[in-house]
Amino acid sequence: MKPPYIYRPLATGHIRLFGLNVPPDCPLNTLQTFELSEAPAYYALSYTWGSRKRTRPLEVDGWVLSVGLNLYAAIRRLRGSSFEEDSAPVKWLWIDKICINQDDMSERSTQIQNVDTISNIRRSRSHWRLDALSIATSIKCHATDQRDKVYGLLGLAAENQDLSRVPDALRADYGLTIEQVYIRVALFFIREYKSLSILTRASGISSDVSRAQRKYKLDFLPTWVPNWCDFTVTEKHTAKSLSWLSHPNYENATTTLCFLEHYNASLGRFAELVEPLNESLLRLRGIKVDTVDKTTPFNSCGRSCEDSLLQFLEIALQFLPRNRDRNTLTDWIASWIKATTAEQYHLGGNTAQQILSDGSAFLFNNLRSYKHIPLCFMPQNNIGEIMDLLRELSTGGNPESYISLATNFCFNRNFIITLGGRMGIAPQATRREDLVFVIFGGGVPYIIRKQRGDSLFVGESYIDGLMRGEAVYAWQRGEMENEILELR
């Protein structure tokens, strides 16, 4: 039986590469060391290679490495193959599981800074900020070590292009726990960019469905810290983010994580971190705007998407304004449509006017038949006027387009109505008496749950009437006060 492979220490600025189709005088599988600046062309592979319990021996330079079954199969498949048409067979690979000594924490921390680990992003003409990379890959990419959900991206991040100026918070340190890594990086994002866009993937409270979708629950992770751990579900089964990846259309542009232009709840004000901070407590300045009064989940108890939207409508109809003139009714219809679609009309290449027509067609078709809406919820003295208005607004509308868009953004969320009569969608764990805050640095309002001494971060929301700086204007007029939120 051949002896196990023994790694020799790597000199600074060097990497190991795994050779597949190398010259005949080399072993079938070889692991060789190169100076990073003089390394041959190679492909980088870095993702989950299967269970550590199910392995196969791989002979390397006359020694044996234990690798997962998936990695073993991939190596066999790649031998003699090429990644692209009309190109030579793959000769050299950088595979984190093989090329880094997994038992040497110092080496892991150093190596992860130097290697581009996702080759398709590496070849793009755009630079990616680390927060954008983290959101883009958090669901689709898996890692054996959950710290690598962040560290595995460092070689690609715009912040790390100059290795002599890498921020301390973005230096790989495998001496830290997963929770410490995630907290450290989240604080860097907020401090550096003065934006709360990264909170789109905050871990939230324990009862939220997103926690149950994680392979690792990280019970000690603060509610405000993004949880980048592997998902157990595909992307279509997760709540859609209300933050946005911005890809500027020019060479050497930087892809960033931000908010849509019409998501401007804090009126462009930067996030204000209030010291002192500790590892678990985030102190931010914001404005308490409203309180959740009614809340109901989307697609619960096996209801169809359309039936869920109709249940939202039943609740909303109970809060129709008493003053039901034409302008008021038009505003209410538009508000309900914007709330249930998170005003994301751009996704289908549509306009705000088109989604208003689509949503109005959905309302007109269902209210016309009374099949789904109890008569007690319909304002009897205004039925004719409402239907005439919906008929007019729905011209050229496609109800199926509305249902599709609303389903995208209501999925795994709750429809809410606040004490102030505002409609919106919020995290699935939202409950009555939760608070609505506009926090400086956030493009959207946030749901907060107060507890003795501090608060829990429930998550981001879309609430019509708070998306364009209305709360900040009210604060500037002296009608509201800002306060320091302590999030744990």
What keyword list fits this structure?
488 residues; alpha+beta; four-stranded mixed sheet; 19% strand
Overview of the molecule:
With 488 residues, this protein is α+β, with helices and mostly antiparallel strands. Helix content is 28%, strand content 19%. The protein has helices spanning 69-78, 96-99, 105-114, 119-122, 130-137, 148-151, 178-193, 209-212, 305-317, 326-341, 352-369, 383-393, 399-410, 470-476, and strands at 14-19, 30-35, 43-45, 55-60, 63-68, 92-95, 127-128, 244-246, 254-258, 282-297, 413-418, 423-427, 435-439, 446-451, 454-460, 462-463, 482-487. The strands form 4 sheets. Strands 10, 11, 12, 13, 14, 15, 16 and 17 form an 8-stranded antiparallel sheet that branches. Helix 10 (326-341) packs across helix 11. It is elongated, with a radius of gyration of 26 Å. The termini are far apart. Mean pLDDT is 85; it is low at 116-125.
**Low-confidence segments, ≥5 residues, pLDDT <50?**
116-125
Give the mean pLDDT: 85
The helix-and-strand class reads alpha+beta
Strand content: 15-25%
Rg, Cα atoms, Å: 26 Å
Globally, the shape reads elongated
